[in-house]
Amino acid sequence: MSYSAKFKDHLAHPRNAGDLPEANIVADKENPVCGDRLRLALVVKDDRIESTRYLAYGCPPTLVCGSVLTELIVGRSVSEARQIRKGDVIDAVGGLPSRKHHAAALAIEALNAALDNVDKH
Fold this sequence. Notes:
Layout: H1 5-12, E1 25-30, E2 37-45, E3 48-57, H2 60-73, H3 78-82, H4 86-92, H5 101-120
Helix pairs in contact: 1-2, 2-5, 4-5
């Protein structure tokens, strides 16, 4: 399976990459098998994700899934963001080889960890 044009575009032009100093929610996740890491930072106000940034280390699919995830969640309520699943990320990047589904899973793990932190504030 070759990667989609959307995948290649996100790889060449990542969206929302970098630090978010004003973030009030941050979550870090790592895949213990491959070592890929993803940090997701959010600004959540009035139960809505106002802005988000990510930092990723790992294979290209991990970088792309982080980029796509930020596009999927910005502007959504916390409850809407909780509904996003691994398959949604895979679909949003135009598909992934099954051996790379771990990248989408890592993005969702980071999202869920971040949203769990919202509940603690």
